[in-house]
Amino acid sequence: MEVLVCIKRVPDTGGKVTLTADRRAIDARNLEFAISPHEECAVEEAIRLTEAHGGQVTVLSLGPAETAEQLREAIAKGAHQGILLESNSDDWDSQTTSQAILSAIRDKKFDLLLFGNEAADAGQYQVGPRVATLLKAPCATGIKALRIQDGKAIAKRQEGNDWAVFELPLPAVITVKEGINKPRHPSLRGIMAAKRAPIARIPLEKPAPSMAHKALKLPQESQGQLTMLGEGKAAVPALVDALKALGVL
Amino acid sequence: MQLVYIELKAGKPTEGSLSALCAARQLAGPIHALTLGPIEAASLAPYGVEKVWVVDDERLRPFAPTAAAKAVHQAIQRLAPRWVVAPSSPEANEVLARAAALGGWGFASACTQLAVDGDALNLTRVTWGGSLFQEAQLKGTPALISVDLAAFSPQPSAAPGATTLENLSVTLSDGDFVDQLKAVEKGEKQGVSLADAKVVVGGGRGVGSEEGFNMLVELAGLLNAAVGGSRVVTNNGWRPHSDQIGQTGAQIAPDVYIACGISGAIQHMVGCKNSKNIIAINKDPDAPIFQRANYGVVGDLHEIIPALMDEVKKLKGK
Ligand SMILES: Cc1cc2nc3c(=O)[nH]c(=O)nc-3n(C[C@H](O)[C@H](O)[C@H](O)COP(=O)(O)OP(=O)(O)OC[C@H]3O[C@@H](n4cnc5c(N)ncnc54)[C@H](O)[C@@H]3O)c2cc1C
Ligand SMILES: Nc1ncnc2c1ncn2[C@@H]1O[C@H](COP(=O)(O)O)[C@@H](O)[C@H]1O
Predict the structure, then answer these.
(1) Contact A223 B291 (CB under 8 A)
(2) Domain for residue B185, yes or no?
(3) Which of A161, A215, B35, B204 has the smallest C-beta neighbourhood within 10 Å, fewest atoms?
(4) What's the CATH code of the domain at B307?
């Protein structure tokens, strides 16, 4: 079975986020980048499905040239090839992103198209369902359990303690959530092989989005009133007192 | 005119739908509502709704995203609203995203602020799971938005007028129900969930191993608490993903969150920012978590937690 996974490159920020001077982006000069978490699980799910059912995993990402790193990371784990829709613009909204993805895959045939439920940064909850609609394919979102049986995708979404079950004929679009699996680490052999793996680069024109990005804004932080209780074991009596005062003990 | 997409639960508008109605009042023009199922006008009347358009096709229940999106798309084409406003819930976002794709329209989800600016809408929306906001401008007619439930609380309108109901028929084929909800499997009722727990003991990389968590589980037992962890912990398989707190895990809101060996990355903190009190135990005095904590202990959790448990056991006479 042929599986497409659409992944997004995002900065791996730590405890403090700094914005660029024009506030358009996170200042990522000292940051590493990663595959957005839900999509990391989508890649894992795709690899497991092709391990079980045969076929190939294609990973696709729209982003700057450096996004090849994330495509190679997915290939190192077991994906077979990558497509990079190359653009330095930060003006891609969900609508233009889904249209660009559609143009890139229009002539290809996939049985399953996997997305994250939402991208870690933009978090629009849209690109998967939009691509499904443009393809006239069935779609299920927020999926945390997936199997393929008799040419159908059986997909489950967690709702409190219960599971909503969808049964989609292939080809289908599924958006997944972290927790559907535990992504593997790439093997050394995988990492070496990924360096030579084929990545098709398709340059894109600047988009004309309906939603124009202006700036990012940090939330108002209510600075915590920190009371230091001490160091090491010596702090335990003060910690116990604090737990009593808070009604825990 | 603005069209507000009302989600129904057991025939009643969801809380988020009422928030969407309140957000819509910040935009110009009369407010109409759209429901994919029967509703009583009285349930929307206090919110200043002029007219409720009801698509009453039984096949639309249970949830059938392709069909629902086609119904909403047809309603928007027919009624030609300037804005379409919905709650930013998983199902409403899915339906609107798909209706927007059918119409070739823009759609901004999870908005927290809205301001009409001539032909466009200036908006602020949630990104990075709530640890950052985006300012953007949405153009085109109609423009679709969904609103963050926390940002708009449902307030009745000061001067609501009369609310009328009108049926709206849509054309749906059997094929449109291809991805309809098939079944709901009842899960086991769990104990206290992370989301509802009054006290949470959380562990991060500093806990060191799966075995290291035995200690935290024991402490949680003594304090009647739930156990949680950072993404490092679930990625390493020390705890199941259902224990993860943060942007791609659970949101917690306990009275007390005891964070052990957790650095305080923004994606973790966004999941525990509603904790009334945070107690941080970390060997690094400069760890970012101390900037968000109410109480701090600097030191090795492998010494502190056992000593704490000894004291707690003494207190409880065990
Ligand atoms: C898009 C995205 C989404 C994410 N979603 C989530 C999410 O949902 N939840 C989440 O938690 N993370 C999430 N992350 C990851 C996040 O950025 C951090 O990497 C992660 O939270 C760090 O986990 P940690 O604090 O356990 O580990 P670290 O950052 O490595 O911190 C370990 C801490 O333990 C302390 N320590 C070490 N040993 C000891 C000891 N013996 N005693 C006391 N203290 C000790 C250290 O001083 C350090 O501060 C996400 C990241 C991205 C990019
Ligand atoms: N630039 C991109 N490149 C590849 N896939 C993307 C991109 N942006 C979004 N996606 C995919 O679409 C999903 C939903 O994105 P969003 O609608 O922005 O929340 C993500 O989880 C990815 O799977």
Answers:
(1) yes
(2) no
(3) A161
(4) 3.40.50.1220
Q: Using CB atoms, pick whichever of B131, B178, B248 lies closest to residue A38.
A: B248
Tell me the pTM.
Answer: 0.96
Domain that holds residue B279: 199-315
Rounded-to-integer distance, Cα B4 and Cα B24, Å: 7
**Chain centroid to CA B149: how far?**
7
Q: Whose CA is nearest to atom 8 of ligand 2?
A: A8
Contact A178, B200 (CB under 8 A): no
Gap from CA of A142 to ligand 2 centroid (Å): 13
Residue A120, ligand 2, Cβ within 6 A: no
Query: Ligand 1 pocket, A3 CB below 6 A?
Result: no
The reply to whether omega before A37 is within 30° of 0 (cis) is no
| pLDDT at A112 exceeding the cut of 80 | yes
- Residues of chain B with C-beta less than 8 angstroms from the C-beta of A125: 88, 90, 93-94, 97, 109-110
CA B128, CA B111: separation in Å to the nearest integer?
Answer: 13
B184-235 pLDDT, tens digit each: 999 887 777 899 999 999 999 999 999 999 999 999 999 999 999 999 999 9
Q: What is the largest CA-CA distance in chain A?
A: 68
DSSP code at position B189: P
> B182 lies in a domain?
no
Residues B16 and B129 in one domain: yes
- The answer on pLDDT for B10 being more than 70 is yes
Tell me the pLDDT tens digit for each residue of B115-155.
999 999 999 999 999 999 999 999 999 999 999 999 998 99
Indicate whether A197 pLDDT > 70: yes
